[in-house]
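A quick aside before the break. I want you to see a complete sequence-to-structure record at least once, exactly as it would be stored in a machine-readable document. Don't worry about memorizing anything.
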Amino acid sequence: MFFKKCFKHNINYRIAQSQKRSLKDFRVMGPRFEQTDFDLQPQPDPAIKLIANTPTRFSNQSIVSCNGGNGSLGHPKIYINLNKNEPVSCGYCMKSSKNMHSS
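That is the input. The structure line, written in tokens, reads:
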């Protein structure tokens, strides 16, 4: 009670702000929040699936370059070493490349 006597709430409000916080329930009601079935919501493919679907580029060289393919809108030009037997992806755009002659 000492707290209420010393610290009055703002005179522009009839009740204190802390008591007003419980009145937020009306904001999450209505037609926007009725459809909560996530099967009906749009579900974009995760990035890992999109990266797996990109085709692998094959090259005869052991070192290839990648610049994103968009000219000035691409990423910085990097060089990728293809001496391994597995596809190697670009660190910026995740395009994979593989040497044709690697066994």
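Two observations worth writing down. The chain is about 15% helix and 15% strand. Residues 85 and 103 are 6 Å apart (CA to CA). We'll return to this after the break.
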